[in-house]
Amino acid sequence: MTTPPEPDRRAGLLAYGSPGPRFQVKLRERFEDFQVEEILNLGTMTSEPCEGCVPIYRVEKRGIDTLHMVRVLSEKLKGSVNFAGMKDKRARAMQYVSPRSSRAERPQAVEHQLFRAERIGFSPRPIGRRSIVGNRFKLVLRGVQDGIS
Questions:
Q1: Does residue 87 surpass a pLDDT of 70?
Q2: Cα dihedral angle (123, 55, 64, 113), rounded to 10 degrees?
């Protein structure tokens, strides 16, 4: 661990976890610069519809937060929609959703200017917070300048 310079210490950063030099970078110039993909446990999902099952959708979105995407998708599916986790508006995000009811509409895909939802299967239970195992991130750093003190 190394001691940060005074401006960082005043901001509350009392130690660096790596001994290397600091870098100045630009983050999130484009949606693709910050990518997040949900990792779910979809063990009970089947490829064919079943009695009482809900459709599972993989959603790729850019420039829209999870709550607004869910509101639009709920209207299209004519039913409330569950999701596992919140994803950033300023990112390219891949997440999963499902209607809460097996009576919801089940189109193969839903197109919107800020997202695309594709049906990938069916499950006896809607997706929820307990479905999420983790997230996979990919970051692009632009304009990297090294040796900043």
A1: yes
A2: 150
